[in-house]
Amino acid sequence: MPDRRQPDSPTDDNPFAAPPEGRPDQPWQPRDGGGGGNGESPKDSDGQRGPTRWDPTDPIQRRARYALLAGMWGFFFGIFGIPSVGLLLGALALYWGISALRGKPVPATADGAPAAPAGGLDALGPAARPQRTAAVSGLVTASLAILLAMSSYALQLAYKDFYVCRDDALTKSAELQCNTLLPNNLVGEVLKVRP
Fold it and tell me: What's the pTM?
């Protein structure tokens, strides 16, 4: 098989390449991932700073991440049949997501100085986008987790006689007789005790 050579990459990406013609040597400096050479975040074409890193000390950003994680796990617990944990995590994710999205501005100081710029997600500028996405995703998954938990509890309440009969049955035949308490629809087919 013939050797397929890749086209030569430009020397701009090679830190070990010689400088271009007519340009003096420069001392080596470590590059950061963002493209700014002096440790600052990269700047957009408008001259504004780009997204900053996630700050774990900011409670608003933390709540946005917590909302996403709690909502996701609450949804999983609801799917796998543990509605009490799903309901708890869904409620926490709902609280954290709403408080992260509200992002109240920093209040004015007592000496009458003007208030600082808006706090929370609004103060982050372009960096607020991933945090806002996390908070909204947390709200969506929290709503689904709460919906699953509530539907599970509603199902148990609606078919309480069946569940009591099934739990009190001492033999398999007595447990099978509890199927007469179920309706002849899809829900009854799902809940039916199998022989």
Answer: 0.61
